Automatic annotation (TrEMBL), chain A:
It comes from Hevea brasiliensis (Para rubber tree). This is Proteasome subunit beta. SUPFAM superfamilies: N-terminal nucleophile aminohydrolases (Ntn hydrolases). GO terms for biological process: proteasomal protein catabolic process. Keywords: Cytoplasm, Nucleus, Proteasome. The gene is PBD2.
TrEMBL record, chain B:
The keyword Ubl conjugation does not apply. It comes from the Eukaryota. It catalyses: Cleavage of peptide bonds with very broad specificity. It is found in: Nucleus. Its EC number is 3.4.25.1. The proteasome is a multicatalytic proteinase complex which is characterized by its ability to cleave peptides with Arg, Phe, Tyr, Leu, and Glu adjacent to the leaving group at neutral or slightly basic pH. The proteasome has an ATP-dependent proteolytic activity. This is proteasome endopeptidase complex. Gene3D superfamilies: Glutamine Phosphoribosylpyrophosphate, subunit 1, domain 1. Pfam families: Proteasome (PF00227). It comes from Hevea brasiliensis (Para rubber tree). It is an enzyme of class 3 (hydrolase). Component of the 20S core complex of the 26S proteasome. The 26S proteasome is composed of a core protease (CP), known as the 20S proteasome, capped at one or both ends by the 19S regulatory particle (RP/PA700). The 20S proteasome core is composed of 28 subunits that are arranged in four stacked rings, resulting in a barrel-shaped structure. The two end rings are each formed by seven alpha subunits, and the two central rings are each formed by seven beta subunits. The catalytic chamber with the active sites is on the inside of the barrel.
Length: 202, 347
């Protein structure tokens, strides 16, 4: 049910995730932000069991911050991805985390990157990736329309195409999505795509 | 073996369960670093601030970070701080080394068919979350409402259960799922909140309280706890409402309903909700939503209690029997008779 997908463009990486918090047939919340800003130039889009998702991504976030405090320099995206995979792998045979992760990062030396990290600790560096039922629709859309070095406008257009496809073809399609981008200026929220307005807390 | 620890410093801001930095200092076991982070993170979420430092660190490190003890345990750690007093932690540093070596145990019952007995026991305590609770934030504060029926399968065991638990004078928790689990862990949360107040000279926020509870429940994940609760309160930032459940999920929101009757309650609540309701209107909305849920859901019923949480704490507003509410909302009208049976004479 949880749709997460992302792609790499020209000097940036973009990830989109749905924002519904669901419990069997009930939607508890439709503005839950599942893309965590890991540090200034990294994003983690996570989908999976609610407790695991929050706890594991917070754990990774704090350890990445710890590394920066201890060593004075931030982790690279590839290092953060490998650390994440390592944690998932270590916990796998005892107390597995059921979280699927797309880690988007930007390094000054190597540029933007996107890492696909499975709940069974698979790690791949990819240019486009997706998780969840939405992946059945978004992967082929991205395969068809993606090319290396897309501009932000082209990439957002592709993301919107994928969201539209998911909304129209997936039986329990999530109503709202959040899009976040990471480039040389840092990781930040780009836009929300809402079709159901949630009452905002004070 | 683990890391040797000596008593020396405490967490910088004195808040337990919330600090974000974990520092692992390693004596001889550099290769265990990855699991150290994992253990220390988990450990840090569960234990009250211990006075520790890690052997072998420089003074500058000691000053900058919070320190934790590395248990060389690789198994899931339970948060048993609710079951032990804080005093025991200070004296028993050698026992902490080995972790929880002696597990609590109990005697098994004498029976011919132990498997059958186990099955029956599990069925009896099987969580069904038969209840309706709801809470929502509005202009004046938070409105919390719940029914009061307890059911064991098809049997109504009680019609007068208190499902709104008073954690402290400005925070409420709702009960859905296992009654014992909810009552115990809410009481435990109340203890932790009070300890926080005493340690920090200020009240804990609703965010902090709900995170404390969520971390505890997460550590017991998969062990059969059944808790679906909402933490509602008023703190410095205004009204706060969080949904926390025993699967480890924690959601911040403005409207929640939990339990078997929650879909029914959501319908009435969503359609009647406006942010700028007055207190009476909000109470009536909450009461009506609970009533409609009890009407349709067999596992909800009894008394619809409504509480209000405002800047000065919570206040119970009403507790009405849902049967009486039914006749208040839908009074009995004399209905026209369609067909009347008439005695036919001479048959």
């Amino acid at each position: 049910m949880e749709c997460v997908f992302g792609l790499v463009g020209n000097g940036f990486a973009i990830v989109a995730a749905d924002t519904s918090a669901v419990h069997s047939i009930l939607v508890h919340k439709s503005n839950e932000d599942k893309i965590m800003i890991l540090d200034s130039h990294k994003l983690i889009a996570a989908s999976g069991e609610p407790g695991d998702r929050v706890q594991f991504t917070e754990y990774i976030q704090k350890n990445v911050a710890l590394y920066q405090f201890r060593n004075g320099i931030p982790l690279t995206a590839v290092a953060a991805a490998n650390f994440t995979r390592g944690e998932l792998a270590t916990a796998l045979r005892k107390n597995p985390y059921f979280v699927n992760i797309l880690l988007a990062g930007y390094d000054k030396e190597t540029g933007p990157s996107l890492y696909y990290i499975d709940y069974i600790a698979t790690l791949h560096k990819v240019e486009k990736g997706a998780f969840g039922y939405g992946s059945y629709f978004s992967l082929s859309m991205m395969d068809r329309h993606f090319h290396s070095g897309m501009s932000v406008e082209e990439a957002i257009d592709l993301v919107d195409k994928c969201i539209l496809e998911i909304r129209s073809r997936l039986v329990v399609a999530p109503p709202n999505f959040v899009i976040k981008i990471v480039d040389k200026d840092g990781a930040r929220e780009y836009a929300w795509r809402e079709s159901v307005k949630e009452a905002v807390a004070v | 073996m683990g890391i040797r620890a000596i008593l020396s410093s405490h967490l910088p801001n004195g808040q337990f369960g919330r600090h974000s930095l974990c520092l692992a200092a390693v004596g001889r076991e550099h290769k265990k670093l990855p699991t150290l982070y994992f253990d220390i993170y988990r450990f840090s979420k569960q234990f009250p601030p211990l006075l520790l430092s890690i052997f072998g660190l420089s003074a500058s490190d000691l000053c900058s970070f919070s320190f934790l003890f590395n248990l060389s345990l690789k198994i899931m750690k339970l948060d048993t701080s609710g079951l032990e007093s804080a005093a025991s932690l200070f004296g028993a540093s050698s026992e902490l080394f080995d972790g929880f070596a002696t597990a609590p145990s109990f005697e098994l019952p004498v029976t011919n068919d132990f498997d059958g007995f186990q099955k029956e026991a599990i069925q009896m305590v099987k969580p069904a979350k038969g209840t309706t609770t709801l809470a929502f934030i509005f202009k004046e504060g938070v409105m919390v409402a719940a029914d009061s029926r307890a059911s064991m399968g098809g049997y109504i065991s009680s019609q007068s259960v208190k499902k709104i638990i008073e954690i402290n004078p400005y925070m409420l928790g709702t009960m859905a799922g296992g009654a014992a689990d909810c009552q115990f862990w809410h009481r435990n949360l109340g203890i932790k909140c009070r300890l926080h107040e005493l340690a920090n000279k200020r009240r804990i926020s609703v965010t902090g309280a709900s995170k404390l509870l969520a971390n505890i429940l997460y550590s017991y994940r998969g062990m059969g706890l059944s808790v679906g609760t909402m933490i509602a309160g008023w703190d410095e930032t205004g009204p706060g409402l969080y949904y926390v459940d025993s699967e480890g999920g924690r959601l911040k929101g403005t409207r929640f309903s939990v339990g078997s009757g929650s879909p029914y309650a959501y319908g009435v609540l969503d359609s009647g909700y406006r942010y700028d309701l007055s207190i009476e209107e909000a109470a009536e909305l909450a009461r009506r939503a609970i009533y409609h849920a009890t009407f349709r859901d067999g596992a909800s019923g009894g008394v619809a209690s409504v509480y209000y949480v405002g800047p000065n704490g919570w206040k119970k507003l009403s507790g009405d029997d849902v049967g009486e509410l039914h006749y208040k909302y839908y009074p009995v009208m004399p209905s026209t008779v369609e067909q009347e049976m008439v005695e036919v004479s001479g048959a």
